[in-house]
Amino acid sequence: MYMRNGKYILVLAPQEYPGKKYRGLYCYEHHLVWWMKTGESLKAGEVIHHKNDDKHDNRFVNLKKMTNREHSKLHGAEKTITMVILECTQCGSSFKKQKRFFKFFFKKGQKNWYCNRKCMGRHQIAKNIHSKKSEVIQMAE
Fold first, then answer.
1. Which residues pair with 86 in a beta bridge?
2. Residues in contact with 131: Cβ distance below 8 Å, sequence separation at least 6, in sequence order
3. What are 27-35's contacts with CB under 8 Å, separation 24+?
4. Phi, psi (degrees; rounded to nearest 5) at 8
């Protein structure tokens, strides 16, 4: 008998299984396969990696024991950082920004983009001076 826990399969653990048991009965199938072939249970900070990324393929040849750090590096290397090319509102020069930052601020309604803090300051000052002039003109009328 087996159950699913997210992407992974839980199976009934044998009584002699030394690893972590869920509800006192179940363990991850890939942990059990590793333990049955090598006799090693996982220590804190270790994981079993599925080489072909199929979480249901729990054959021993598809499994590899790694530290959390190695595993994070492996999966972190797969993610490429996508960049967006933007134009500075103040000076008009082109610059790159990570797409995830662009999407975050775009959703919040940001319309002005700056290549550096100096341009941002100049634009804010110019915007404030323009609004002050229009206030003075309105008061004069």
1. 95
2. none
3. 29/2, 29/58, 30/55, 30/58, 30/63, 33/58, 33/59, 33/60, 33/63, 34/60, 34/63, 34/65
4. -105, 160
pLDDT per position as a tens digit, 68-117: 888 888 877 656 678 888 999 999 999 888 887 777 777 778 888 889 99
Beta pairing partners, 25: none
The listed range with the strongest mean pLDDT (1-10, 12-21, 86-95) is 86-95
Paired tokens of 43: 């220590």
Name the residue ranges covered by the structural domains of the chain.
Answer: 2-78, 83-140
Q: Where are the alpha helices (DSSP H) in the chain?
A: 29-38, 68-78, 99-107, 117-140
Element (H, E) at 40: none
